[in-house]
User: What shape does this take?
Amino acid sequence: MKSAVILINALAVVFLVFAFFKDREKTRRSIIVAARSFLRILPLVLMIIVIVGLFSSFIPPSEIMKFIGAQAGWSGILAIAALGAVLHIPALVSYPLAAALLQSGATIAPVAAFITTLTMVGIITLPLEIKELGIKLTILRNSLSFILAVTIALIMGMIL
Assistant: This one.
């Protein structure tokens, strides 16, 4: 286990003990709220495990490298950015998926483009956004978000 994980968990336990001694009732209520939150996201966590497992089982690393590896270049970055813009999956699911992509040979820039467009661009939510913001502002926001997301991905690809 990494030392950062151990440190974070040790600090959490120390602060929990401190909170318990300071106010037992408030700490008990906080633990109940945390447990309910955990149970609420548990199906999503299980879905993540299944998606990543299926993904790594059915798509060989050579195909991933061809599509979003170092040799894919701009086309790989733009294609995965477009995929991220169209998909409507929670960010919580996208992070383990991004880790699986990186472990399978994808480079940083396309994975960063996927994550950033997934969270910044909303093709699926366009009708609601047009209704609330108007068509001009919606197109402007999504276009600028897409450009910015690809720019962020390229900068991350150069830095990391």
